[in-house]
Write a structure and sequence with these properties.
Chain lengths: ~90, ~120
């Protein structure tokens, strides 16, 4: 098979890597705290997708469990920072 | 060259393009509330679409644990699809409530009505 999975993944690699660099730039430079958290949030979800693509590339299942955990962790980061900004505390 | 492979390859490459556009928008847009729009493109288009594409690609692949990869990436896609808008909404509510982000609206009908 000439045009296989590896070709698709190698086409997709530079797009994702460029996007990660730009997200990191916004996360470092963001003028306010919600900007930084938004950039880190986007980067976490996209790293979860990138880990799934890497699991295809390496033909292994170990990266997929990390992807599920990373997606949930980004949601937790959002909720904690939103609680902290809105109420001044991270309580229940 | 099956249908699942073609659909999965299309979704993965489309997700990469959406991810790059969302990142450029997140860098270039002027305001936090405008940047939320680019963040939606970056999460839904850049994470959910390639995760569904990876599950399609893994169904057509030949390595031994391909069904585990397909199912787990599909589950991750559904989780991100549910969770990313909720997190962005909570963050926008907190930013508006705490007044960290400055915004100068031309017309604020809510404030006028509350006077």
């Amino acid at each position: 098979m000439q045009f296989g999975i590896l070709t698709v993944v190698e086409i997709a690699f530079p797009l994702y890597l460029a996007a990660f660099v730009i997200y990191a730039l916004r996360a470092v430079r963001g003028p306010t705290v919600p900007d930084m958290i938004l950039a880190v949030d986007c980067m976490s979800f996209d790293i979860a997708a990138f880990m799934a693509i890497l699991a295809l590339y390496f033909r292994s299942t170990y990266l997929i469990g990390g992807a599920v955990t990373l997606a949930l962790w980004a949601y937790l980061l959002d909720l904690y920072v939103a609680n902290h900004l809105a109420r001044g505390e991270v309580g229940a | 060259m099956s249908v699942a492979f073609l659909l999965g390859a299309f979704l993965v490459v489309l997700g990469g393009i959406c991810d790059l556009f969302g990142a450029i928008g997140l860098l270039k847009f002027p305001n936090f509330y405008v940047r939320l729009h680019a963040a939606t493109v970056g999460t839904i288009g850049g994470a959910v679409v390639p995760l569904f594409g990876v599950s399609m690609l893994a169904l057509g692949a030949g390595f031994p644990h391909r069904y585990a990869v397909a199912g787990a990436s599909f589950i991750t896609g559904v989780i991100v699809l549910l969770v990313a808008p909720a997190g962005a909404t909570a963050l926008a509510y907190a930013a508006h409530r705490s007044g960290v982000v400055e915004w100068k609206p031309k017309v604020d009908h809510l404030r006028e009505a509350r006077k």
